[in-house]
């Protein structure tokens, strides 16, 4: 572990992740999420590695990292569209290996709840989520030693620029309702809470990159909770 005591606050750069970053991304992810509320961590490190391999190399996704003094201290991963099915398909062989190694996982209710859940509860939610141009944040995390210094807000802002360049017209981000530190980042950045996308445990925020997009989606101002 490098000595970070001499790194001033907010002294980080943001760049696109490459394959060479995958191990560091896996480590940061592993330290940031608990298996009981995060299925990839429940499935094990190899499965998490497979998801980052897909996110970094896949045609429909990208990962940005915050780097301080040569260390990756934050990440945000974004897919150009709904990511759960394509990512799961890409990682299916690793999923099967995880189950073969740990058959007890099949008894974990949370696994089935996550795998079988409908991603969006209302038909309006599905319409918004599936509309071409709607990107989705898949993961975000900051090293515990760098939290509260604006690293994630900077990554979230950078994702708007990157997604716009990739042709996206909006980004949605699903956050556990109980995760107030993360929710505050999106609220402060002006992302719009969108009840139509909500699930029982997850709230969704949307950032519009094209001002005409909400109208095309059939939304009006009354549906926006700012
Ligand atoms: C959510 C998370 C990404 C926020 O990253 P961050 O770079 O710390 O974001 P910020 O600097 O804006 O701080 C967010 C909040 O964290 C809290 N915070 C401040 N210092 C902190 C610290 N040392 N440790 C933990 N939280 C701290 C603050 O309450 C802050 O809210 P505020 O703006 O009202 O002060 C980070 O806490 C994290 O990685 N959590 C674990 C993974 C996770 O929950 N990911 C979210 C899924 S998208």
Task: State Rg.
Answer: 17 Å
Can you tell me the CATH architecture?
3-Layer(aba) Sandwich
Report the span from N to C terminus.
41 Å
Percent of residues in β-strands:
15-25%
Compact description:
With 226 residues, this protein is an alpha+beta fold. It has helices spanning 22-32, 39-43, 45-57, 84-90, 92-101, 109-116, 123-130, 151-165, 180-188, 213-216, and strands spanning 13-16, 61-68, 71-79, 134-142, 170-176, 192-193, 202-208.
Labels describing this entry:
226 residues; alpha+beta; Aminopeptidase; seven-stranded mixed beta sheet; 10 helices; 7 strands; 40% helix; disordered N terminus; binds coenzyme A
Structure explained in plain terms:
With 226 residues, the protein is of the alpha+beta class. Strands 1-2-3-4-5-7-6 form a seven-stranded mixed beta sheet, sandwiched between helices. The N terminus is likely disordered. The chain has one domain: 3-Layer(aba) Sandwich (Aminopeptidase), CATH 3.40.630.30. The protein contains ten helices and seven strands. The site of coenzyme A has 18 residues, from strand 4, helix 8 and helix 9.
């Amino acid at each position: 572990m490098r000595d970070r005591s001499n790194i001033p606050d907010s002294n980080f750069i943001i760049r696109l992740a490459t394959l060479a970053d995958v191990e560091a991304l896996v480590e940061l992810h592993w330290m940031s999420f608990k298996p009981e509320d995060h299925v990839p961590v429940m499935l094990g490190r190899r499965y998490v590695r497979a998801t980052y391999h897909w996110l970094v190399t896949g045609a429909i996704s990208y990962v940005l990292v915050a780097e301080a003094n040569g260390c990756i201290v934050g990440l945000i991963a974004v897919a150009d569209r709904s990511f759960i099915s394509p990512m799961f398909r890409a990682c299916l062989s690793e999923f099967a290996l995880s189950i073969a190694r740990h058959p007890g996982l099949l008894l974990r209710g949370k696994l089935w709840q996550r795998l079988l859940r409908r991603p969006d509860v209302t038909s309006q939610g599905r319409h918004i989520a599936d509309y071409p141009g709607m990107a989705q944040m898949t993961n975000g995390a900051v090293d515990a030693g760098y939290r509260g210094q604006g690293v994630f807000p900077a990554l979230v802002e950078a994702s708007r620029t990157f997604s716009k360049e990739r042709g996206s017209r909006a980004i949605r981000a699903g956050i556990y309702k109980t995760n107030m530190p993360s929710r505050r980042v999106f609220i402060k950045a002006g992302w719009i809470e969108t009840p139509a996308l909500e699930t029982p445990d997850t709230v969704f925020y949307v950032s519009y990159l094209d001002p005409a997009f909400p109208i095309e989606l059939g939304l009006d101002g009354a549906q926006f909770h700012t």
